[in-house]
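Q: what does this look like with zinc ion bound?
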Amino acid sequence: MSPASTCITGIRELWTVGSEPGSGRTIRDAAIIIEGDRFAWVGPAAEAGSADAVVDAGGRAAIPGWVDSHTHLIFDGDRADEFAARLDGQAYAAGGINVTVNATNSASDERLRTNIRGRLRDAWLGGTTALETKTGYALSLDGELRSAELAAELYRAGNLEAVTFLGAHLVPDSPAYRDNPDAYVDLVVGEMLAAVRPHVQWMDVFCERGAFNAAQTRRVLEAGRDAGLGLRVHGNQIGPGEGVALAVEYGAASVDHCNFMSDADIDALANSDTVATVLPACDLSTRVQFAPARELLDAGATVAIASNCNPGTSYTTSMQYCVATAVLQMGLSVPEAVRAATWGGARALRREEARDGLPALGAVEVGHRADLQLLDAPSPTHLAYRPGMPLTHSVWRAGERVVAGRCLTGL
Ligand SMILES: N=CN[C@@H](CCC(=O)O)C(=O)O
Ligand SMILES: [Zn+2]
């Protein structure tokens, strides 16, 4: 049980992260007061009021918890052989998804529950306090419904922030659909969507060569919109394509990957409310050119960084690794990368403001959900300066201390 109010003091450097680029505050010798599940006060330690409990941060730095707006946590098996083949020069192709579909459909509910919880634990230990996850490794009516239900269990328990229906991940390799992909799209936008609808808030589609073409993507997005779901798109990952343009046209909250971008794609994103979500760990694992995050930011687009945890292209939930890569390889400053992995992720989930009775995420501001991490470092700059080090010391999630001194106390 958490005390009614907690003052975290002795913070050497706090990055609050703000809603406009560059608008967050850096407060040295800071304190934060948490009341219930919200931030109640943020400022210089010398001015902090009293609280029921006091935690000494011991001169550590503090930033918001990571908001990981793109993961695929519901799966069984791994694809290390496919990864090794890539190291030998093989290109990534969408068809590998079938391997995970077979493994996932063979796993029991209990096994999948254990897998998801293990991945969530790793994420929380690494400073992630909010997560989206997707279906998409079952590709049958019953299987997609099972994945949606398993994710919804965690959503309803408050352990996940968003569940996305990704029945349109790949056309399954079965006699019924192999030569008739449109029949599979019929199933996705019809019976499957109706079945999963009570368990999900978002609809996603993999618009790419080898997955779904532009016409099929339109059908999926229109069905999602008509069902009252928010929209997301996997686009422009393997090559140039229409994913980004369609995401903007349909007002998707986010288009994710964004590796192969034309000037028009960048321009369209910069003039839209669609977040460009970049996935640095995926770019490294698949050895494709990095998404042009620097150009997107310079053009005025909103950029989010997410882990894209999945067994095919990015088997990690480490947001620190993604942030360090965005800085070291994609040309972002540390404040830009931290903002993209916190406020940017919240914006991609449309949770950067309080909405529908849910508190805002992604910044250390009064009234926001109290999601915070203390780093074993005097400044957040160490996230890129000491890549790969276990820098997350403590994590508060909705006001609960779920990690203390690198030990998980929740979940
Ligand atoms: N690109 C589409 N979906 C996943 C990877 C799927 C897989 O290969 O298993 C992604 O976001 O990278
Ligand atoms: Zn993905």
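The first strand starts at residue 5 and ends at 15. The radius of gyration is 21 Å.
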